[in-house]
Amino acid sequence: MPDNALPRSFEDFNEARKLGFLAAKEYKERGGKLAGCLCSYTPLEVIDAAGMAAIGLCGMSDEAIPDAETVLPKNLCPLIKGTYGFALTEKCPYTYFSDIIVGETTCDGKKKMYELLADLKDVHVLHLPQSQARSYAADIWHEEVKLFASELERRFGVRIDDGKLRDAARLRNRYRRALVRLYELQRSEPPAMRGVELMSTLLASTFSFDVETFVGKLEALADERERAYAAGERPVAATAKRILLTGCPSGGVINKVGKVIEEHGGVIVCLDDCSGERANRLLVDEDADDILRAISDRYLAVNCSVMTPNDARIDNTAAMARAYRADGVVEVVLQACHTFNVESSRVQRRMEEEGIPYLKLETDYSAGDGGQVGTRLAAFIEML
Questions:
Q1: Which Pfam families does UniProt cross-reference here (predicted)?
Q2: Which residue among 63, 166, 172, 346 is buried most deeply as judged by most CB within 10 Å?
Q3: Start-end of CATH 3.40.50.11900 domains in the chain
């Protein structure tokens, strides 16, 4: 990609995508460096401390999946196929302009896809322990995060020190606190926001080149929503059924699942996916003597179905369902996501013990099952 050139197919893109490419190109031409990220285990503070922008890359549509399937098997998670397909076709501005893509050994499909992705882009893979319960897990992960910091220093000629890491931790904690303020507005009866607005805000936060500017926008949005609610504004009907959404990353199904829930008399009051509340409530200890260790400890504490045992996720989902007074729980499982699919039986059993109705939706990014998904959601909400 000479001199930050645009892809050959640029003129074929729609206006929104062209604007994304032009914004990324302008950022690169100002000397900015982009790190593409695919997982909530990626230690963003290390990227921030390197003076780089961390951008979310997960493929969240089926547009490039046919291209990906010329290389990858069809019976693979759509998130993995979408991510690889957008890199292969050069249709995603953030993948295209990324100086490095940061992967992680969560599921088997992802870590093998990264081997192929490395033929297209520079890739660094973080080796994640598969259990938080082992006594040595925190030490292993700390070494991985140290190695990652050293790799960024080597590749980009930067210096990552404790001061930069501490500043980054303070800013990221501000970002998380702002998100939590928005989440907690949904505890109100009725909620202060439509769930789709919350989902879209969360998704937008992964595409910002300037964390501090976006944090300011989040804080302003939280202020605005709090004032409006206090003044009597009620964007959600009091009769709307309160839904907790859990399972796989939901960015690619905002319309297919989130919008449909709210069209049929529900409202999403809690997002319990890996980029939602269960991850963003976790803060870095900004005052820790070893700030890099504090950062690595915070990320290892994130609950995900790749961990075993994973009792903490089940307990946390039940606790949030109670805290948000959920009328029902909808679990989204992307097709071929084996870890969440297997674990869904434990979530269902726990919800039954809690007396909370539960619905599992196994789907992908296509529109092919949209009618079936809508029918099942409508029937579920009607019986609550």
A1: HGD-D (PF06050)
A2: 172
A3: 163-383
Location of structure tokens 């893109």: 13
- Omega cis (within 30) before 235: no
Q: Is there a contact between 86 and 64 (Cβ–Cβ < 8 Å)?
A: yes
Q: Does 3.60.21.10 match the CATH number of domain 2-160?
A: no
- Identify the residue whose tokens are 């993948």: 95
Tell me which CATH code domain 163-383 carries. Answer: 3.40.50.11900
74-124 pLDDT, tens digit each: 999 999 999 999 999 999 889 999 999 999 999 999 999 999 999 999 999
Output the pLDDT for position 1.
55
**DSSP SS3 for 362:** strand
Euclidean distance between CA atoms 340 and 109, whole angstroms: 13
Question: Long-range contacts made by residues 305-313, C-beta under 8 angstroms, separation at least 24?
Answer: 305/339, 305/340, 305/342, 305/343, 306/106, 306/107, 306/128, 306/130, 306/339, 307/130, 307/131, 307/132, 308/130, 308/131, 309/131, 309/133, 310/343, 312/132, 313/278, 313/343
Residue 23 has a pLDDT of: 86
- The CA distance from 82 to 65, in Å, is 5
Q: What is the pTM of this model?
A: 0.95
Below-70 pLDDT ranges, the chain: 1-3, 12-14, 16
The Cα 8–Cα 343 span in angstroms is: 43
